[in-house]
From TrEMBL:
Name recorded for this polypeptide: Deferrochelatase
Gene Ontology terms: cellular component: cell envelope; cytosol
Cofactor(s) the record lists: heme b
Residue stretches making up the Dyp-type peroxidase C-terminal domain: 216-396
GO biological process terms, semicolon-separated: iron import into cell
First-listed, main subcellular location of the protein, grouped into a coarse class: other
EC number: 1.11.1.-
Length: 410
């Protein structure tokens, strides 16, 4: 029998993975094949890179930032080991631990909270990162890389401390929101006594494509978002712009940095703007998503083109100011999501973009771009940045007993 025995979740109808996965599991010896891919609903947890970065972006996300409640490095290391075991099981469509999800003894708390029983793995990925303050708390400041520093305050920021920062982060992405929420809920539960939630964010409707097989999605302003995003099928560009190289410490080489920004969009004001104004602000047409100098979505934007009134793509347009041409060739791998968090009590929706980007160096690459956008982007009139965080995301895990944070805390 495999160390990962058939779970009650499978017995309750894990139809998404199906009998084919059970057969694949027999070949690998621990439940589900590491080679399982598109069409199975299972994405390999271990590998050279953490899943959830260049993985084709799923439809839903639950992101959580946590703080350490103590300074015991051993306790943190033990938690990360337990988190890894639970994460690997959940991404395979299993409960967080072996045993009955509904115990026979009704006076025993179930090991798994149970809301994902009967659901497939839904392409769940779990991505782990560490924040700047963790190194001070654990007395390992000599291991903190220079780029891992809190982001500066940008012009117009209205950051809520309760929605910013964090010692650790977990990004759960899936094609079923309940699967993503279940994963975060159970990891948070496992961390009781060692970590506590600082903030979290639910997202829907991805706002970027991370694979050439995906169509470009739209944000809540109704425009296609992330047309020129880096893709999984561009390994050389990923090496240049996303993955940390020899400049990073041993524990981070092959990993990356995650930048998170909660951006409230004043959609009611935007919705009263006429179409021409909206398109001039963005620099693209709203229907096809083409730059104002082209006819197709993927036509290159001609930033030098001029018309009777000046540049065809305005100097303060979002497309121009966010372009690689205007930022020294810098590019980011975007992986954001839309959000609607109720209303603000004044008749306006608290809605917007939860911006997530992966980048090789946030200080030299993201910060200059964001400073330019905050200062000059016409779109800024309709945006309000309310949360901010940065995390270092280590590389993937090797087979065996390798676990999150092992190389960092060794």
């Amino acid at each position: 029998m495999s160390p990962w025995q058939v779970s009650r979740r499978r017995l309750f109808g894990l139809a998404g993975a199906g009998a084919a996965l059970a057969g694949a599991g027999a070949a690998t010896g621990y439940g589900l094949s590491a080679a399982a891919g598109p069409g199975t609903g299972v994405i390999a947890f271990r590998g050279e890179r953490q899943a959830g970065i260049v993985t084709p972006a799923q439809d839903r996300m639950h992101f959580v930032a946590l703080d350490l409640t103590g300074t015991d490095r051993g306790a943190v290391g033990d938690l990360l080991r337990r988190w890894t075991l639970a994460a690997e099981r959940m991404t395979a469509g299993l409960e967080t631990a072996d045993g009955d999800a509904v115990p026979a003894n009704r006076y025993v708390a179930p090991a798994d909270t149970g809301e994902a029983l009967g659901l497939s793995a839904a392409s769940l990925t779990l991505t782990f990162g560490v924040g700047p303050a963790l190194f001070d708390k654990l007395g390992i400041t000599d291991r903190r890389p220079a780029p891992l520093a809190e982001l500066p305050r940008f012009q117009g920021d209205r950051l809520d401390p309760a929605r910013s920062g964090g010692d650790l982060c977990i990004q759960a992405c899936a094609d079923d929101p309940q699967v993503a929420v279940h994963a975060v809920r159970n990891l948070v539960r496992e961390g009781f006594g060692v970590t506590e939630v600082r903030w979290s964010q639910l997202g829907f409707g991805r706002t970027a494509s991370t694979s050439t097989a995906q169509a470009t999605p739209r944000n809540l302003f109704g425009f296609k978002d992330g047309t020129n995003n880096l893709k999984a099928e561009e390994p050389e560009l990923l090496d240049e712009h996303v993955w940390v190289g020899a400049e990073g410490p041993d524990w981070l080489r092959g990993g990356t940095y995650l930048v998170a920004r909660r951006i409230r969009m004043h959609i009611e004001t935007w919705d009263r703007s006429n179409l021409d104004e909206q398109q001039q602000i963005i620099g693209r047409d709203k229907g096809e998503g083409a730059p104002l100098t082209g006819t197709g979505e993927f036509d290159p934007a001609d930033l030098s083109a001029t018309g009777p009134d000046g540049p065809v793509i305005a100097d303060d347009s979002h497309v121009r100011l966010a372009s690689a041409q205007e930022n020294g060739g810098v590019r980011l791998l975007r992986r954001g999501y839309n959000f609607v968090d109720g209303s603000d009590g004044r008749g306006h929706l608290d809605a917007g973009l939860f911006f997530v980007a992966f980048v090789r160096d946030p200080q030299s690459r993201f910060v200059p771009m964001q400073r330019t956008l905050a200062r000059s982007d016409a779109l800024s009139e309709y945006l309000e940045h309310t949360g901010s965080a940065v995390f270092a995301v280590p590389p993937g895990l090797a087979d065996g007993d390798d676990h999150w944070g092992r190389a960092l805390l060794a």
